[in-house]
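re: ur question from the group chat, yeah i did fold both. here u go
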Amino acid sequence: DESCTCYACQHFSRSYLHHLDKVGEILGAQLCTIHNLHFYQVIMAEMREAIEQGRFADWQAQFHENRARGTD
């Protein structure tokens, strides 16, 4: 994901991650875990900020819209 700032996305290509997964290399699973944990940490931080600012409904609508388009 070009917009992701996690270690896996910044240092490895999608094709290499796909290869690792396809051949069952444990590094692929580790890098996917790093990406997934980073993704959830970012989402939770955004949620907390939106709740504190009283705009959670707007954040939620934008999140769903972005996911439907396949973007962040």
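okk and heres the other one u asked abt
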Amino acid sequence: MMAFETEQKKLDEATLTKGVASLLEDKSKGFYLVAEQAGKVVASLMVTTEWSDWRNSTFWWIQSVYVIPEARRQGLYSALYNQVKKLAKAQEVCGFRLYVEKENKVAQRTYESLGMGESHYLMFEE
């Protein structure tokens, strides 16, 4: 649902299921945080790591951010982000990074409101 809504991508369910299971089984790959309302997961994000030799420290990448439509604008992402920051204080984390679709102005405003700013880096992929 998230990939289609944000990027019009249909994911292979078997691959996605294996990918989630792999992260849950191998803590070195990262972790998920979720928010629940009435026992139902309504928001989530994934954190992965990137070692920085320049800083001799770790960046945490926030990925797979999703809040179900009916739970948006209720502060759930802010709560998850604040939990990420709290967890990072006890570890070698020098900063947080994420990527966002260029057209997703609502998400960009949310990230900015929490103190994040646009990086001077561009992202390339193959």
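fwiw on the second one: Residues 105 and 111 are 10 Å apart (CA to CA). The helical segments are 2-7, 13-25, 76-89, 105-113. idk if thats what u expected
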